[in-house]
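ARCHIVE CARD
Drawer: 12
Card no.: 0347
Subject: one protein chain, sequence and derived structure
Cross-reference: see card 0346
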Amino acid sequence: MGIKIFDRYLFKQVLAATIVCIFLFVVIWIAPETLLKVIKRTLSGQYTPWVGIQLLVYEIPKIVGKALPVGLLLGSLFTFDKLSKDFELTIFRSIGISFWRIVAPVIALSVILTVICFALYNTLIPYSELKINKLKNEGYETHFVYNVKADKDRLEKILIVPKYHSNQISTPLVLNFNADQYKDTSVLDNILLADYAVYKDKKWYLHNVKKYQLDKSGVFEKITRYNDVKVLDGEAGETAFKLMNYSIRRDRELNNSQMTDYIRLLKKENLQDEYRFNLNKYLQRYFHSLVCILFAILGSILGFSQPREQRLVGFTVGIAVVFGYYITLPFFDMCAEKGLLSPYITSTIQPLAILAAILAFKKVKDL
């Protein structure tokens, strides 16, 4: 019965400390740039006060997603440091309670927050990013290029979209190739320039089209005008439209289902850089959530100390681990994108390093 009381006590203590740490992390993260930018634009009349408040609120899920592992590490470290200072951990160890039994309620809490962290990246963060874009009245504009191949080495056509906003596809350009003229290459046959395009039922229709015809030697012959021209149909049309929509959105704006679909299309179209980068970000969602558990255990270990031991060492190590974790994320993103390391390595190397640190500190502290 006493151990159950201890479990509840420790759970509440770590939870309270974690919430405080998360709150401080959010304040520190949002204050220097986001808050000042919103205040500046509100005072200049670019945002209304209500829009400014909403923007700050919708920024919070993204920051909380980053703050959860940090909060668990520092919250568990602070709690166990306090228990060590008050000799409570010494008493529990002296009556034979193992380290893993003592940290069981902390692990239980970290599992709950791991699920919350994963749900944030899958649902709430994409939703909040969509709301932020609408509040800022930011439309997507992109330069999108899609290749249709006759076979492995020969092009059939290239679709170029200079500007895209919502469902409006402006001034698309299509380069059509004669893939039958040579066996190992394609020759430009004609160029289609349209005022706009419409995507419907897996089909791309160009409207108000000028067709620039070229002869076999590549010399311009004539211009023909058309009201409508269908340029993509079926699977190719659907793939092009999906890729265009996904490519203009950041990874945090996509839920897991959309990320999976995007990665599948990138692999299918052999867009290797984008494929590796997005696969790495997708895998990071799982391992970043798992880091909540690892950080909670590491914080507990760092909080274990002898009555006369210097407490500053544990907090210094904890801050260094957090700093190292977040500062190396862009580096591993780049390694994955450029193909220097497999996305399966870049997404797991940090959790494995934290696990190694847990085992090392546990052995050093003889827990």
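Annotation on reverse: The mean pLDDT is 86. Residues 16 and 75 are 8 Å apart (CA to CA).
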